[in-house]
Fold this protein.
Amino acid sequence: MKNNKIAIFDIDGTIFRKNLHFELIDELVWMKVFPAAVRKKLIDFYADWLEHQGTYEAYRTALVNLYAEYIQGKKKEDVEEASRKVVSFHKNRTYIFAEELIKKFKSADYHIIAVSGSPIEIVEEFNRAHLGFDKVFGSVYEMDGSGAYTGGADFEPTKNKGQVVRQYIYENKLTLGNSYGIGDTESDASFLKIVENPIAFNPNQNLKKIAEENSWKIVVEKKDVIYNII
């Protein structure tokens, strides 16, 4: 039986070595649900970030906007099929540090949740096939009366991940005593600041600055070596 303690994870860049949203868009192109031109835009956004022409947050926002533009009129079953394909191929591309923490929390009967900005369809598939968390949150896109996506979003957890976590804790009568939070960008700071044991893992520059200001633990994983910075 689970105790009332909680551990909160981001997914992209924290558990998953890549980005679920990127891989989902790419797969939708391969399935011809999205036009081929979308792949060039996707790669250009990634290259800008990789070559220091923009921040990770700008890259993430570009992915969200690209998805919202091209998901209009598309069906949920296509997104679910693409999610299954992506997760089946990529599910084990995870960080050692995150996997070790997940094992630790599961053995200690923690409630384990993930809060991600990636679409809920692929977040839930990743959880079903690999994570086995108690609850996952992802972006929920609006659908019209015919069952097609409108391009609008009903729920975007990245706007305030901390509030999502607080609501979950309240509804499930959990405690923040000996709680853990693990994230890699500034969008995770809102839940890292409420836990007892915040960990900035492979943080971007913005989260690194926040972590240093608050004396949070900073951990970096390079290849198969884990470094505790603070």
Q: What stands out?
A: Residues 6-228 form a domain with the Rossmann fold fold (CATH 3.40.50.1000). Residues 91 and 184 are 19 Å apart (CA to CA). The mean pLDDT is 95. The first strand starts at residue 6 and ends at 9.
